[in-house]
Amino acid sequence: MTFKALRNVSLCPGRSTRFSHVTLPVERHTVVLERLRDEWTAKGYELKNFRVLPGGAGAELDLVNPVDGFQFSWTTSGDRVWIALIVMSPCVRSPDGKYPG
């Protein structure tokens, strides 16, 4: 599985936000995100959210690295064709911890 970078925005020294995606049949989205969840939590990442979307429409996964605060968010696209990945640096999140977009 290869993620394609769509945009890289440096918002503070040494940190960035990256938006990427991978094209994958929607039938595999939940299985892939379950595997990512299991592998990354086994490596020490904290699970913030995992949700299977209704009717087999995909899934969402949010993890955070407790060491540096980087957050990783995967979600099925609106057209159900690909999985979007957003990587957020602690310096670009709003003070309440929510994504600034």
What can you see in these coordinates?
The chain has 101 residues and is α+β, with helices and mostly antiparallel strands. The protein has a single domain (4-92), classed as Double Stranded RNA Binding Domain (2-Layer Sandwich), CATH 3.30.160. It has one helix spanning 26-42, and strands at residues 4-12, 15-23, 46-52, 59-64, 71-76, 82-88. A 6-stranded antiparallel beta sheet has the order 1-2-6-5-4-3, covered by helices on one side. The chain is globular. Residues 1-13 have low confidence and may be disordered.
Main features:
101 residues; Double Stranded RNA Binding Domain; 1 helix; globular; DUF4177 domain-containing protein
Q: What is the residue-mean pLDDT, rounded to a whole number?
A: 77
| SSE order, one letter for each helix or strand | EEHEEEE
What share of the residues lie within helices?
A: 10-25%
Overall outline = globular
Number of DSSP strand runs: 6
CATH architecture: 2-Layer Sandwich
Q: In angstroms, what is the radius of gyration?
A: 14 Å
Strand content: 35-45%
CATH classification, class level: Alpha Beta
